[in-house]
Amino acid sequence: MGVVTPPKTPKQDRSRATRQRLLEAAVACLAEHGWAGSTVSVVAERAGVSRGAAQHHFPTREDLFTAAVEYVAEQRSFALRALDRSDRRHVVSALVGLYTGPLFRAALHLWVAAANEPQLHARVIELEAKVGRESHRIAVELLGADESVPGVRETVQGLLDMARGLGLANLLTDDAARRERVVAQWAVLLDEALR
Amino acid sequence: MGVVTPPKTPKQDRSRATRQRLLEAAVACLAEHGWAGSTVSVVAERAGVSRGAAQHHFPTREDLFTAAVEYVAEQRSFALRALDRSDRRHVVSALVGLYTGPLFRAALHLWVAAANEPQLHARVIELEAKVGRESHRIAVELLGADESVPGVRETVQGLLDMARGLGLANLLTDDAARRERVVAQWAVLLDEALR
């Protein structure tokens, strides 16, 4: 028997929708303008929300941007669950795709800012660990990897590190053509490694 | 018969030494304080050079920091030439090492700043291409990889992308223990892939 959730009031629905708009606008803003150009005001305006309403949901700039990267990362991971797992190249390409869009660009700006901003540092370390664990879990599931076999855990970790590196290589130029060739080759190598 | 270089005057030697001190101080400053905290004045002070002398060598902030990353990257690549190539794990570890020290941290700050600073953008793209080509060349040489074999080029590229991803994972926390395990496993995969 499931837990019965009380029906949401229109006010709760509106509040939830506002929150989501803010989170999505925050990731887009960070990806486009970097940390220096991303404030609660800029995001509120982009989301069509008053500054007061934005601050009600997210009292500080750090609250807003860490919550935004976490939320969008969850959405992206969740979307991967429906993926067809029969084609390994397709799976590797989708995993690498987690690191080549606006989400990774936003996360990268946040990571790098955290290196020099004490008020971000601890929160981003926590966020990185959480998002990293979830990406690893999804990768193991999609690749059908058996982590009880020695080396398999590190094979999957290395693949996700490679995906992160490919994301970095895509920051200033469109690296899609080279990336597809690397993905194709490493999908073959992974097939052998995970057999 | 070699070309005879005229002997350097003490003044030229001093100028060259000043330039090197500035370049090394610039990389250290960028690695520690990020782009926002790195100016020609801060670097001049760190190097013990007057601001005027620093600007004589590097008229703009962009000149100084792109030259610094290029210089230190060249030094690091050059140092790898003497490496013992018989142990693949040792070679992979050394290549990954190119991406986990202050040089990579400095380069990362410059890459990310370039995403939002038009006056840096084109210069960092050029720098990235140059440093990337050199890292690839060194990797091929150290791994004894035969790029005429289909797939080998992409295998080496993927390894360097992984190294870049491992560098990123080391930005906020000390990731050395996990990194060593990934390097050990991927050295094994490379052995099979390059055989």
Q: Largest interface, by Cβ-Cβ below 8 angstroms: which chains and how many residues each? A: A-B, 45 and 45 residues
Indicate the mean pLDDT of chain A: 94
| DSSP strand count of chain A | 0
In percent, how much strand structure appears in the residues of chain A?
Answer: under 5%
Q: Categorize the overall geometry of chain A.
A: globular
Multimerization status: homodimer
Let me know the largest β-sheet of chain A: none
CATH class of the domain at 62-194 in chain A, named Mainly Alpha
> Percentage of helical residues of chain A?
over 70%
Structure commentary:
The structure is a homodimer of 195-residue chains. Chain A has 195 residues and is mainly alpha-helical. Chain A has a domain at 62-194: Tetracycline Repressor, domain 2. Chain A is 74% helix and 0% strand. Chain A contains nine helices and no strands. In chain A, 42% of the residues are buried. The mean pLDDT of chain A is 94.
Question: Which keywords apply here?
Answer:
Tetracycline Repressor, domain 2; 195 residues; DNA-binding (chains A, B); mainly alpha; 9 helices; homodimer; HTH-type_TetR-like_transc_reg (chains A, B); Homeodomain-like_sf (chains A, B); globular
Quick recap:
2 copies of one chain form a homodimer. The first copy, chain A, is an all-alpha fold and 195 residues long.
